[in-house]
Amino acid sequence: MPKIPHDITDSLVQLGRPEKVQGRHVNLPIELGSTIIFDTLAGFEAARDARYTTGTLYYGRYGNQAGFQLEAMLSELEGADGVTLTSSGVAAISTTLIAFCVPGAHLLVADHVYGNTRAFCDNVLTRLGVEIEYFDPMIGVGLSDRMRETTCAVMFEAPGSGTFEVPDIPAIAKVARDGGVPSIIDSTWATPVFCRPLALGVDVVVASMSKYLSGHSDCMMGMVASTAEYVEPIRKTVMAIGDKTGAQEVFLTLRGLRTLKMRMHHFDQAGREMARWLSGQPQVKSVLHPAFDSCPGHVFWKRDFTGAAGLFGVLFHPSSDDQIRAFVDSLQHFGIGASWGGYESLVLPVKPQRTATAWDIQCQLVRFNIGLEDLGRLKADLAAALPLLNTASE
Ligand SMILES: Cc1ncc(COP(=O)(O)O)c(C=O)c1O
């Protein structure tokens, strides 16, 4: 399938702003409010009847002007028929899955999904009578053998959280569509700058906007973008659950999005350079970075993506947990913390959870998020800490 050429440069600058800027601020204000008042009862009733349609001002929980602008902007970026905002990436995932699951349903989930996606499936959906089946993310068209009469959706990521395998997106999307169920992809890593899954045949894209889309580690938000068929069921579920995005978060995400493309291009270059440098160190067995051919699914990344984010994994030759702790603790320019996609570099050891596929537990996996810092300084920091780890010969 050919790459879909698209240029979102102008969209990032122009969308989600007041149409005429003469005599107004460039950006929309932070819009606070719960009750929205109407001049007539008929006006109120018309708004109530249309409350699941983006752009309808009805009551604070259903959105406001700035939120609608952000939804329209994200629809354009993702090539979606509709977008619903959520209070976090996890809320985007959980509300979407709830929208498609019923008691007795069978949900197919890739074995490499984000830990909280797995936790939601195992701890909440199973309690509601949903059967979860994990599958090898590299299964491709082989997924058709796992489809059942009761299958309600297919959930996966590209690349996988922590382990970075890149699945065959169009193949998985097609199996789901042929089986009459939606495919749902968590596309937080790529952002619409580097991949537009809906153009590859996926039905629903979920993303944490707490990462690259807002981009400054100062807010939590999520979004669900989909084809027309799924816009209303997802929106109704989000509204029924009462999930609500904050006005300040909407403002910060609209602001962060303006620089998304240039930030992603910086992270692409900086991430590749750091991964290349790390792959040459004697303590490193291999890098798990979709742009490197050592990464499973690299060919799919080359076919379906136009760049790589600054988050990747490094497999170190076997060292003890204490050595890994000492290595991480001694880094001066990498913060230790959850999340990623901000302007700061981060480091975190990862223990992948696998139930359908095997994982090499001999090697130590560490995840790096490369930020906007000077690369020479980051390399010097790592070079000072790496001797704490074993090399291949030790
Ligand atoms: C791939 C992926 N999806 C979703 C999330 C959840 O997003 P949030 O932290 O906004 O709830 C994360 C968070 O780390 C993530 O890594």
Percent of residues in β-strands:
15-25%
Strand/helix succession? HHHEHEHEEHEHEEHHHEHEHEEEH
Into which percent range does the helicity of residues fall?
Answer: 25-40%
Total beta strands: 12
Strand neighbour order, sheet with most strands: 1-7-6-5-4-2-3
* Separation of the first and last Cα atoms: 45 Å
Uncertain runs are: 1-5
Round the Cα radius of gyration to an integer and report it.
22 Å
Q: How would you state the average pLDDT, rounded?
A: 95
Count of DSSP helices?
A: 13
Tally of individual domains: 2
Classified in CATH, the superfamily of the largest domain is Type I PLP-dependent aspartate aminotransferase-like (Major domain)
Structural class: alpha/beta
CATH class of the largest domain: Alpha Beta
Q: What is CATH's topology name of the largest domain?
A: Aspartate Aminotransferase, domain 2
Tell me the major beta sheet. 7 strands, mixed
Identify the overall geometry: globular
